[in-house]
Amino acid sequence: MQQDKSSNLGRIAASVLLLGMIMVVSACQAETGLTVIEMTNALKFVPAKVTIPAGTTVEWYNASDLVHTVTDDPAKAARSRDAVLPEKAETFDSGNIRTGARYRHRFTAPGIYRYFCMPHEGTGMVGKIIVTP
């Protein structure tokens, strides 16, 4: 019975620590105007859709064991619907992002962006960013 209490206390302490870390990350994002999107082993951008104000920087973090890209260039897309940019926005391409690496892009032109991962576009690894004025 004593061991069960210790196990429960350990789990509670770990949960409190995790919650504190999440709060610190959220506070940092609010202070810096940084939005973080993870690239996963499930071949997804998480979250798949974000809405941000113009001037916000988005950081993609490769949390998977695979190499990914963040690409919004219609000339590089297999399907035109996977690469959409507002009229005044410039294309972007991260190149290969290895495990644990990050890529940042600042969004200044309002509108809808659809981007994809070049190696995994065919599996549906596509994301959407809505930039408000």
Protein architecture, described:
The protein has 133 residues and is α/β, with parallel strands linked by helices. It folds into two domains: 1-32; 33-132, Immunoglobulin-like. Helix content is 23%, strand content 32%. It has one helix and nine strands, in the order αβββββββββ. The strands form three sheets. Strands 2-1-4-7 form a four-stranded mixed sheet. The protein has a three-stranded mixed sheet with strand order 3-9-8, with no helix packed on it.
Write the topology of this structure.
Elements: H1 2-32, E1 34-39, E2 45-46, E3 49-53, E4 56-62, E5 71-72, E6 92-93, E7 102-107, E8 111-116, E9 126-132
Parallel strand pairs: 1-4, 3-9
Antiparallel strand pairs: 1-2, 4-7, 5-6, 8-9
For the structure shown, list the relevant keywords.
2 domains, 133 residues, globular, 3-stranded mixed sheet, alpha/beta, Immunoglobulin-like, 23% helix, 1 helix, 4-stranded mixed sheet, 9 strands
Provide a brief overview of the structure.
It contains 1 helix and 9 strands; from the N terminus they run αβββββββββ. The chain is of the alpha/beta class and 133 residues long. The chain is globular and about 35 Å long.
Which consecutive residue ranges, at least 5 long each, have pLDDT under 50? 13-31
Structural class: alpha/beta
Compute the gyration radius: what is it?
18 Å
Number of helices in the DSSP assignment: 1
Distance between the termini: 59 Å
Note the overall shape. globular
| Amount of beta strand | 25-35%
Number of domains: 2
Query: What CATH architecture label of the largest domain applies?
Result: Sandwich
Strand arrangement, largest sheet?
2-1-4-7
Please trace the helix and strand order, writing H or E for each element.
HEEEEEEEEE
Report the CATH C-level class of the largest domain: Mainly Beta
**CATH homologous superfamily (4th level) name of the largest domain:** Cupredoxins -  blue copper proteins
Oligomeric state of the chains present here:
single chain
Round the mean pLDDT to the nearest integer and report it.
85
Helix content: 10-25%
Main sheet specs: 4 strands, mixed
CATH topology of the largest domain: Immunoglobulin-like
Q: How many runs of DSSP E, i.e. beta strands?
A: 9
